[in-house]
Amino acid sequence: MDILLRGLIGGIFGLFHGTILAIIIHELGHLVFGKLTGYSFVSFRVSSFIWFKEGEKIKFTRSKSMVAGQCLMSPPEGAGKFKFVWYNLGGGVFNILLAAVWWGIYLIVVNAVSDGLHWIWGIFFAIGIIGNIIIALLNLIPIVIAGMPNDGRNIREALKSEDAKRGLRLVFYVNSELAKGKKYRDFPPELFALNEDADLNNYFVASMLLMEAEQLNDSGEYEAAINMCSRLNLKKLPAVYTNGVKLEQIYFYTVHQRDLEKAALIYNDKRIKAFFATSKTIEYAWTVAAYEHFGLGNKEKAQKTLTRAKSQAESHPNAGERFMYKERLAHVAEAIEADKNQSEENDTTSLAELLKEANAWKEGERD
To answer: How high does pLDDT run on average in the chain?
Structure first.
C-alpha cells in the first residue's frame, strides 16, 4: 500500500509539472524570446491568474478566460525590427528545454536512489517529460487546435505575405495599446487600411479587416461594421475568427437591428450553441445576455449573465477592453430594461382593454 501511495503521489506531482508547470514555462519562453527580440511586457496569464503592467508597476488580478495561458507583449517600433518567428518559437523551445532538464535530473535521481523504487520516480519524471514534449509539438507543428491556430501555424501564416506580417504586427500593437487604455475609436482609420487585392483568406490579413470593423462598432457605425465582416469567407478562417463574427452578427440582429429570425439562424450553428452553453467568461457576454433575453426568452438567465459579466469587467486587466466591455454591457442592460417597461405597458394596456370590454358587456346586459 505504501508503494502504491508513493506511486500515486508521484503521478499527481508529475501531472502538475507536466501540465501547469509546462504551461507556465511555455509562456515564459514567449516572454524571454520576446524580450530578447525587442518586445515590451504587457501581461502574463496562466489560467485565471494574470500579471499585467499598469504604468511602471506590475499588478496582479484574476479573470476567467478562454485560453489556458497567454503572454501579451508590445512589438518593437519599426516594421523591420518585428522578429515574430523567434517570439512564436519561444514557448515550444522552452518546453523542449524543460523536458531535457527533467531527463537529466531523472538520471541523477535514479542513480542516487537505493530503495528500489525507481519506477515511482520514473512516473514522476516521465509525465513531466512527455507532457512538455506534447505541448511543444502541439505548438510548433503548424496546426489549428479547437479552432485556435497554434504558434507554428502563426509563423507559417505570417510568412505568406507582407500583408500577413503587417496583420500580425497590428494584432500585437493594437492589443498592447488597448491594454494601456486606448479604445478602438482612438486609432486612426488608415491604420487598418487594406490593399484591394489583399488575401482575406489569410487570418492575419482578415484580422485587419476585423479590427476595422471593431473600430466602426466602437464608433457607433454598427451596420457598416456588419457589412464589412460580410466580405470574409468564414469557411476559410479558423473557428476563433468565424465564431467572433457570428457572435457579433447575433448581437447586431438582437440589439441594434431587431431581426430575431436572422439571429436564430446564426445561433443554430452547433459551435455557437456550444459557446452559449459553456462560456462563463466576459468575452461576448453582452451577446449571450442579449440573445438569452430577446431570442430565447430566458430573462432570468440573461440577468444572471449580465450580473456575472459586470463583476468580471471590474477585474479585467485590459483597460481599453474593460471600458468597451462595460459600455456594451450597459447598452444591453438598457435594452432589456426598455423591453421590460414596454412589456409592463402592454400588460397595463391589455388589462385596460379587458376592463373596457367587461364594462361594455355589463352595459349591454342592463340594456
So the answer is: 86
